[in-house]
Queue: 2 jobs
Job 1
Amino acid sequence: MKNFHFYSPTYFVFGKGKESETGSMVSRFNGTRVLLHYGTGSVVKSGLLDRVKASLSKQGIYFTELGGAVPNPRSGLVYDGIALCRKEKIDFIVAVGGGSAIDSAKAIAMGVPYEGDFWDFYSGKAICKKAVPVATILTIAAAGSEGSSSSVITHEEGNFKRGCTSEHIRPVFSILNPELTMSLPNYQTACGAVDMMAHVMERYFTNTQEVEITDRLCEGILLTVIKETPRALADAGDYASRANIMWAGMVAHNDVCGVGRDQDWSTHGLEHELSALYDVAHGAGLAVMFPAWMKYVMHHDVMRFAQFAVRVWGCEMNFQHPELTAEEGILRYENFLRSIGMPVRFSEIGAREEDIPLLVKQTGIGSGTMGSFVKLNAQDIEKIYRLAL
Amino acid sequence: MKNFHFYSPTYFVFGKGKESETGSMVSRFNGTRVLLHYGTGSVVKSGLLDRVKASLSKQGIYFTELGGAVPNPRSGLVYDGIALCRKEKIDFIVAVGGGSAIDSAKAIAMGVPYEGDFWDFYSGKAICKKAVPVATILTIAAAGSEGSSSSVITHEEGNFKRGCTSEHIRPVFSILNPELTMSLPNYQTACGAVDMMAHVMERYFTNTQEVEITDRLCEGILLTVIKETPRALADAGDYASRANIMWAGMVAHNDVCGVGRDQDWSTHGLEHELSALYDVAHGAGLAVMFPAWMKYVMHHDVMRFAQFAVRVWGCEMNFQHPELTAEEGILRYENFLRSIGMPVRFSEIGAREEDIPLLVKQTGIGSGTMGSFVKLNAQDIEKIYRLAL
């Protein structure tokens, strides 16, 4: 096991109706002037935003609003948010929504006290030294951004999608009410499941040996999502499955299942260019790319893929031919993705073979590599995109 | 799933040699005058205490010392510690040791700013409102106190052992170096494994239905401890198994595997009287009491015990007679305990049948009940003690 630091100080408030505690939680963490940042219609139409505002008003907390965060959140809105926060002397940001609103809020939070362009944090030009505190009220179980120190933003000039990690943007509190996820279309619920599974698998496929505790935690989260997602899709109002999925999404990404090991994250890199170019949902892009990545790298560590197949997918171990077990695990994963209505090939998301050279270029890989389980160069990446055709 | 709050803000520093970061971590959390609290010889003899002192001195941090914490830590030393902290104007306590030193430090931390008797927090007479910040340098993987909000102290007048829970005593940071556990006698390593498994099982056996995510996390921790403990016992210097066990002990008790469900904790209650009366190691007492408790309550929810047997102990499900699977799981657990050198009967720890009425009385149960999976009254408790004969 590698040395590590683990610090996950987010205060989680989980359960039915918990958005009514927004005001008291903001007060607890010393917020006085709040930016409410959210996406488009549903947060408003459902009445959630009104309930959050009422909770803030009850505590006498000043707030202003910025809606308009979209899936694959854009840099333009971040600049607007930074300007608004400065003008309004905002000292606390509450994101209401899914990963998009939260990641956008995190970008704004870093940008407010920073003299340069916030994009510096995403392009790797600067490291965040401080940020306005961020909290979240989660409406989509997927990204894990409610408990993570990361954010992903798409720059509108050139459709670059880039991530940034900083302890300063880990939410100080997050309110998770599973009921809020019941109104999601099945497609979005399924995309969320794919995303949280991907967060686990980016950590699971590692060259660090003998980290049994995090292996087991990873497998436990995957088994939960595999069991609960079909139930949520069959009955959108099933609280138990919604609650299990929602907490799984957090545990999948606050890094408790990833410490002590190298992590890979190349599939996220490959997917970011897909969703930036075609504006496809992140989860759908991952459903296309993850099986392709697995097929390409499987032979690097057949026994790890066999473990994945046996422990997560219930395959029988083939002791004479472990590679057949490994392949069966990948197949079952792909079949599961299909069964929950996810695309698994380029054609199903409108992606085109002729764009592959552009996709490879957009990753910015040049003559470098990405990933750690297998270090992928530009040729590898092209082959993986082709495996997804 | 039940509504819950989850807040685990401890900063964990994990890995080889990490005790050298004590000084910088104390500074990070604004400590200036430190009490170093520890147990008996080994922390001193191993040179660990000197390394910690050097790290504090390097940062220019003042410190004073109080050794002498013993297994099943005693109230007498807590009173000494409170007086010392007040005299020395201590603003930060670093516990160096296992659960005993840590729990003793937590009691001191609560007692310092409190005008009454610190025991009020353990007897239920008062609720802690503030405490001196506590940090830990862990030398025994067992109690999970390095990441938990709880503390257990034995009152010397009458040998009462009582627990207390407060967010104010959750460590602000904890340093976990698996190498420090390599010098433990096998008996203590095994006791630690039993203790962390018990922390998981107190959460696992619940009447709250369909909390799959925490079920799976619980099972993952148990599977890890079951796999890694025999390796650590066979080769005390095996870093991988030590590291897995050490982190498992934390995850077993910071409540990430227990949220959203009723928890039981009656077996800990039963054990506390055993170890208070006979001064047996807590883990050894749990090894005696947990199988007895299981045998007594199994029929309350046979399917839960069957799940435990299948998922944790690899039993084949008997679909016609699930109770046989449930029984087999308990048997395999008991066999595992024996295989790692643990006692599983009264006679093996010097406990006596004729003391059972006294043990029952000492729990303070009177005409009340304890536990939540099955609410046990005095008669039930007596029967469970007898099942351990």
Job 2
Amino acid sequence: MKTSLECFPCFIHQTLNALDMLNAEPQVREKVVREVLRYASQIDLLLPPPATGRVIHTLIQRECQTTDPYREAKERFNRLALSLYPDLVRKVKNSPYPLETAVRLAIAGNIIDFGIHTRLTMSQVHQSIQDALESPLDPAGFRLLDQAAQEADQILYLGDNAGEIVFDRLLIETLPREKITFVVKGSPIINDALREDAEFIGLTDRVPVIDNGANAPGTILELCSEEFVRRFQQADLIIAKGQGNFETLSDVPKRIFFLLKAKCPVVAKHIGCKINSMLLLDSSFLKGEKNCL
Amino acid sequence: MKTSLECFPCFIHQTLNALDMLNAEPQVREKVVREVLRYASQIDLLLPPPATGRVIHTLIQRECQTTDPYREAKERFNRLALSLYPDLVRKVKNSPYPLETAVRLAIAGNIIDFGIHTRLTMSQVHQSIQDALESPLDPAGFRLLDQAAQEADQILYLGDNAGEIVFDRLLIETLPREKITFVVKGSPIINDALREDAEFIGLTDRVPVIDNGANAPGTILELCSEEFVRRFQQADLIIAKGQGNFETLSDVPKRIFFLLKAKCPVVAKHIGCKINSMLLLDSSFLKGEKNCL
């Protein structure tokens, strides 16, 4: 997905939000905003928006002299999501079609995105869960994912954010998990999950966890490690969580199931759905029909 | 009032809105947005936000090869406001304190601001009128303005937008109008009123109308004509309409009554009121107490 001119106000908003969260000094705020504006004036619109997000957040990390500004927030949401876990497991187990419920909950977890919601509350997380369980649904998407997972030999599950990965663990435990490798980011970017998050929430005990060697809030193959790209090409099914993975992989010729909330108007417009829609998109149908929850 | 870093996303939004309204070609849109980003990266934050608004809209006019992109919109709102005029006159005449009602209506008219509302509807204008008439009020402000107007020898009334000036005419007819000179902008900027608008709505028949020689969406004295600056300095009372005039004149040591709606979060935060508040601010009290409707 290309960058839209409508992304630019949001790049600046994201910059200001991150600087607020870090309580950056006024002169640092001004320096960063000016650099972001200058950088944004020159970007290649053919690149996906997370390519710019990566540069912006790397710049903020450098100027605020911090390597992982969202570490504390990530830990908080890992703990909060873990506290919900037993109840979520029950919901899945008691469901007539556990995979469907687990997919819905995995999408619900995608609300924990500090690129969009810097002041997310637990009540918003609960609301997202409720919405995901109650949304009208097209059952075809779940059956297609189910079938693809049964037929696949190697499944690569591209994670998104800390906290959210607890919801991913739930889905992984519902899928044939012996085929699954979970992927985290190579180094800190916003609140995207890292290996330590996967370890903390017990995901490393369930499936192999690798990192993609990059620090983009999405999966930009050109920036990923050779090892990751090899695994990506070998896998016969990719499950990709979140808006960033959709923005960076929607044009890649590969069978990918995207699970996300369309949290920004540009992505929603690109997909052709309402903002905040919960989506299960099969890349086989992306140029034609869409399978939206 | 200085430029805040929070103004930057809005500068880009305003640019995109203006380009949308002009149905600009994609390559023109991209060129303008890139130029605005580059320009914004270098601006002096000590300047008021309308200084940047002026540059942005001048750039858009140049790149879209149009000198007055809002001409049609201005004429439409002049006509619409004129159609309301007889009813507004009745409201003022039937009021126990006509000046108060006329001030409230003049503030209501400030909603016709295409820098903020590019898709304004008549129902929003009606709602603004209703809100202005019903807002709880501090009567002190009206009495202070009334007294200042009685005592003044020369009153300069700085207009804001086309359409809105019909509401200004109403207030002018309630004040000692023989003392008043009305001021329009020197050349087109957004939907700010020009001499032709003042003529069209019959204001030139009521009071002398001069222009300020500039094309900023506010009053930046350094950019105005010598003649206007002389008149500004001579006047013993200034009535300044709208956010742009507040942003550009709030630090000028002069008795000014600002009548505006605080339509953006940065201005509202600066003043210390809720967004969309209707305000009558006496500059004498600006550093201390505020007189908000």
